[in-house]
TrEMBL record:
Protein's name according to its UniProt entry: Membrane protein
Keywords: Membrane, Transmembrane, Transmembrane helix
TM region(s), chain numbering: 12-33, 81-99, 104-126, 168-186
Keyword Transmembrane helix applies: yes
Length: 194
C-alpha cells in the first residue's frame, strides 16, 4: 500500500509557505515606477493587499493631461478580497502540513496556482483598461497611442519610462507557487518510485 503521508521536508516547507503568505498581507505586493526628465528621482506607486501607497496622487495629476482615469483606492474591489484570500491560502498550507496528507498538498498547489493566474489576469485587465480607455477630450491626445503599463518589466510611454515588478509580497507569492509545485512534483515522484 502506498504511503499517503508527506515527507518531513514537505511539511516544513508548507509551514514556511503558510507563514510567508501571512506576511504578504502586510507588505507591498507590486511596485510601479515612472521615470522622466522632469522627475529624475522617479515616482513610485505600491500596491498592497488592501491599499495603494506612494506617489499615485502625483501620477493622477500627470495622467489627467493624457486622459487616463484617476486611481482611487475605493475603485479596487480586490482590496476587499485579497487579504482574506492570502490568509485563506496561508491557512490552507498550514492545514496541509498538519493533516500530513499528499492529497492536501496537491489540492493546495492546484488552488493556489489557479488563484495566482487569476490574480495576474485581473491585474493585466486593470492595466489594459487603465491604459486604453482614455478621455477623448484630454489636453494631450496622441492618435493611436495607449498607455498600458507593463505587467512585468519596462515600457516606454511617451517621455516616461514605466517599470512594473513584484515587491516583497509578490516575490513571496511567486516563491510559494514555485515551492508548492516542486513539493508536489517530488511527492508524486516519490510515490512512483515507491
Amino acid at each position: 500500500m502506498k504511503n499517503p503521508s508527506l515527507s518531513k521536508w514537505s511539511r516544513i516547507f508548507l509551514i514556511i509557505c503558510g507563514l510567508g503568505l501571512f506576511v504578504s498581507i502586510f507588505v507591498p505586493l507590486w511596485a510601479i515606477y515612472l521615470e522622466a526628465p522632469q522627475y529624475p528621482e522617479g515616482l513610485g506607486m505600491f500596491l498592497w493587499s488592501n491599499k495603494i501607497t506612494g506617489d499615485y496622487q502625483i501620477i493622477n495629476g500627470l495622467n489627467h493631461y493624457i486622459g487616463m482615469k484617476t486611481i482611487h483606492q475605493e475603485d479596487f474591489w480586490e482590496f476587499k478580497v485579497l487579504p482574506y484570500a492570502l490568509g485563506f491560502f496561508g491557512l490552507l498550507c498550514l492545514i496541509a502540513a498538519f493533516l500530513n496528507k499528499k492529497l492536501w498538498l496537491y489540492l493546495t498547489t492546484i488552488l493556489f496556482l489557479i488563484f495566482g493566474v487569476a490574480f495576474m489576469v485581473d491585474f493585466w485587465a486593470w492595466e489594459y483598461n487603465y491604459g486604453h480607455n482614455l478621455d477623448p477630450n484630454a489636453a494631450i491626445v496622441v492618435p493611436g497611442m495607449s498607455y498600458q503599463p507593463p505587467l512585468i518589466g519596462f515600457k516606454q510611454l511617451l517621455n516616461f519610462g514605466a517599470y512594473s515588478y513584484p515587491d516583497i509580497g509578490g516575490i513571496i507569492m511567486f516563491a510559494v507557487a514555485g515551492i508548492l509545485v516542486i513539493l508536489a512534483y517530488l511527492e508524486i515522484r516519490k510515490r512512483k518510485n515507491a
